């Protein structure tokens, strides 16, 4: 499916985003206890972890929703403080959350340019450039391998995978340098999943740094260049493609012991 | 949302036919309804209904309602209701009447001043809804009573005990702005058309229809502008987005609050426009003006394809919804039916429209 060419091999790339020993406390709950993570242009860095491992808190910190309690965020080598998701977006960190921020009743084009409509003409005849919007939408979608029936198709009629692709295409079109995908494959069927994974691969080849959050090891292995496992608010280390097997990742996510026992009784199918 | 992402059998959908494409237009129901109602009256009403004077007869109330309905439709598309429109007509009428009669202002001052007060009330409505997060239904229901009551009390103060304020016509005789808000337009053209025999005249040579009542022109112009704004401007996109999913819209950079407050201002200003037109026309204002108009406007908007949940609808639909309203109310007087059937008729239309819209929405989005 995906090309197996880790972008990091053979050259020393500076990370676009480097999260250094991030801690996040909510009252007396320690959600993140010193997580370090970085991502370079053109790679897909998978962040794995079971439910409650701190994945959501971590990406929300990265995308400007939360401020870290301790630790530093380096963006293109410089320390940065994001006060809001808008700040992070303006810097080039786009997050595609599970709700996709799309409106089913509106057309693909209207969703694609929602809040950032291209215009032509002068006031009072300043109007939306529908031709341009339609063309750009179709082109952006084609680049990610999806031929839309028409730009006026309602998003509600798209399949889950296609919707995910519209959200990704939109983020890339508006200049995302870092694309954070929050469990993009969690609600999808087999074929749709492979489409989304292929999309991730295409986006990576365009030079975008992709942070792929998932709890599915097979999906991660399909496209990931590096893998970081979160467990109980801590990183259990980062591994490169080829240095680690699926079973090892699985064990790390589950915290080792219990999973091994379970797997015995399930015949190694999990 | 993640849990609703449906797993469709195939990536590629079937090609759609002309019918399906048409079905996706929100105004389809209203256009079809207008055609059906026209056919109904062609068979049952006396032929005078569809003469020029008959058409003006039902278009005038349709226009007055339609101006309100288009405003209501735009607000509904943005996901909010304004139940205070009808009371706002009475309240603006009082303010306007008082400015003109009691304070003797010329229209050039009275009209902007009335609009300014209405706009302020629209901002108040919108701000309360957005700040508290309460449903606009309940907030504007409160204003339905507040404004109606204030109109009654205000009229009594202004007139010394009466609920009707007269003397607007005398106060405005000769005002250069009056023809824009009252009377008929294109009278010269109509006289000419009467002379050359294109339109009917009375035996003495004056035309049966002196011109087009100005409210009809306001109505048509407003429908066109609203449609343009909704379909062809970024602001229109924001209106649909705000009503479709407030969170998704504001996460994508749509100024949802501004959009909604502007539309509350718009509905208040629509009510004011209708108030000014009717007050100048009648030469007086009273506290029952605009009674129940909020419901009629919302019904017209729903017949026009607006979903009660927001995010979908059209101004052209509301335009035809209002025309259906006008045809049914006035049209029954041209038939042998009891006039009071009209409420039954409208209730049935509303029910049919809601069922139809619901069905369409499922077809269009292919989900939920």
TrEMBL record, chain A:
Domain ABC transporter: 17-257
UniProt keyword Secreted present: no
UniProt cross-references to CDD domains, sorted A to Z: ABC_Carb_Monos_I (cd03216)
An example molecular function term from Gene Ontology annotations: ATP binding
UniProt keyword list: ATP-binding, Nucleotide-binding
Entry annotated with the keyword Metal-binding: no
Top-level taxonomic group: Bacteria
Pfam families: ABC_tran
Name used for this protein in its record: Sugar ABC transporter ATP-binding protein
Automatic annotation (TrEMBL), chain B:
Domain of life, per lineage: Bacteria
UniProt name for this protein: Xylose transport system permease protein XylH
Compartment(s) of residence: Cell membrane
Cited InterPro entries: ABC_transp_permease
Location, primary (coarse class): membrane
Function, as annotated: Part of the binding-protein-dependent transport system for D-xylose. Probably responsible for the translocation of the substrate across the membrane.
Bilayer-crossing regions: 28-46, 58-78, 137-157, 177-199, 211-231, 261-283, 295-328, 340-360
Keywords from the UniProt entry: Cell inner membrane, Cell membrane, Membrane, Sugar transport, Transmembrane, Transmembrane helix, Transport
PANTHER family for the chain: ABC TRANSPORTER PERMEASE PROTEIN YPHD-RELATED-RELATED, XYLOSE TRANSPORT SYSTEM PERMEASE PROTEIN XYLH
Membrane topology type: Multi-pass membrane protein
């Amino acid at each position: 499916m995906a090309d197996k060419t880790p972008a990091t091999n053979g050259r020393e790339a500076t990370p676009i985003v480097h999260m250094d020993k991030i801690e996040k406390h909510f009252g007396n709950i320690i959600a993140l206890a010193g997580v370090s993570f970085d991502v370079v242009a053109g790679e897909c860095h998978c962040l794995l972890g079971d439910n409650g491992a701190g994945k959501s808190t971590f990406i929300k910190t990265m995308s400007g929703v939360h401020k870290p309690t301790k630790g530093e965020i380096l963006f293109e080598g410089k320390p940065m403080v994001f006060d809001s998701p808008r700040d992070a977006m303006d810097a080039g960190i786009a997050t595609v959350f599970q709700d996709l921020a799309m409106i089913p009743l509106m057309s693909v084009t209207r969703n694609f340019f929602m809040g950032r409509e291209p215009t032509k003409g002068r006031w009072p005849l300043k109007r939306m450039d529908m031709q341009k919007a339609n063309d750009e939408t179709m082109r952006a979608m084609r680049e990610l391998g999806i031929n839309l029936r028409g730009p006026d198709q309602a998003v509600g009629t798209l399949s889950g995978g296609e919707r995910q692709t519209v959200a990704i295409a939109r983020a890339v079109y508006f200049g995302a340098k870092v694309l954070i995908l929050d469990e993009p494959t969690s609600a999808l069927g087999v074929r749709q999943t492979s489409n989304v994974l292929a999309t991730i691969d295409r986006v990576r080849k365009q030079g975008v740094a992709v942070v792929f959050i998932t709890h599915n090891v097979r999906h991660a292995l399909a496209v990931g260049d590096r893998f970081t496992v979160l467990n109980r608010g801590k990183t259990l280390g980062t591994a490169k493609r080829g240095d680690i097997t699926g079973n090892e990742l699985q064990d790390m996510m589950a915290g080792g012991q219990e999973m091994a026992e379970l797997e015995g009784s399930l015949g190694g199918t999990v | 949302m993640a849990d609703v992402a449906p797993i469709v059998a195939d990536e590629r959908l079937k090609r759609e036919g002309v019918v399906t494409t048409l079905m996706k237009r929100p105004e389809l129901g209203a256009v079809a309804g207008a055609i059906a109602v026209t056919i109904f009256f062609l068979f049952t009403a006396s032929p005078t209904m569809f003469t020029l004077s008959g058409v003006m007869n039902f278009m005038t109330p349709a226009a007055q309602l339609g101006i309100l309905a288009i405003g209501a439709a735009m607000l509904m598309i943005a996901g909010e209701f304004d139940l205070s429109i009808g009371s706002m007509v009475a309240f603006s009428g009082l303010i306007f009447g008082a400015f003109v009669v009691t304070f003797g202002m010329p229209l050039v001052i009275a009209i902007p001043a009335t609009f300014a007060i209405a706009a302020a009330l629209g901002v108040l409505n919108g701000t309360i809804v957005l700040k508290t997060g309460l449903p606009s239904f309940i907030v504007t229901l409160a204003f339905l009573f507040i404004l109606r009551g204030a109109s009654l009390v205000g009229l009594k103060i202004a007139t010394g005990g009466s609920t009707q304020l007269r003397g607007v016509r005398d106060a405005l005789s000769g005002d250069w702005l009056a023809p824009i808000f009252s009377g008929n337009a294109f009278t010269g053209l109509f006289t000419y058309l009467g002379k050359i025999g294109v339109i009917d005249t009375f035996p003495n040579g004056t035309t049966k229809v002196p011109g087009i009542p100005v409210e009809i022109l306001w109505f048509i112009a407003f429908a066109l502008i609203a449609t343009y704004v909704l379909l062809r401007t970024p602001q229109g996109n924001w209106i649909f987005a705000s009503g479709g999913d407030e969170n998704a819209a504001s996460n994508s950079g749509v100024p949802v609050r501004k959009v909604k407050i502007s539309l509350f201002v718009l509905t208040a200003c629509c009510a004011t426009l209708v108030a000014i037109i009717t007050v100048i026309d009648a030469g007086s204002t009273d506290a029952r003006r605009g009674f129940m108009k909020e419901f009629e406007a919302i019904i017209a908007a729903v017949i026009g394809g607006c979903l009660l949940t927001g995010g979908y609808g059209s101004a052209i639909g509301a335009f035809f919804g209002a025309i259906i309203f006008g045809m049914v109310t006035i049209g029954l007087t041209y038939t042998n039916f009891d006039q009071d059937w009209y409420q039954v008729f409208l209730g049935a239309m509303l029910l049919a429209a809601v069922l139809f819209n619901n069905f369409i929405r499922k077809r269009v989005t292919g989900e939920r």
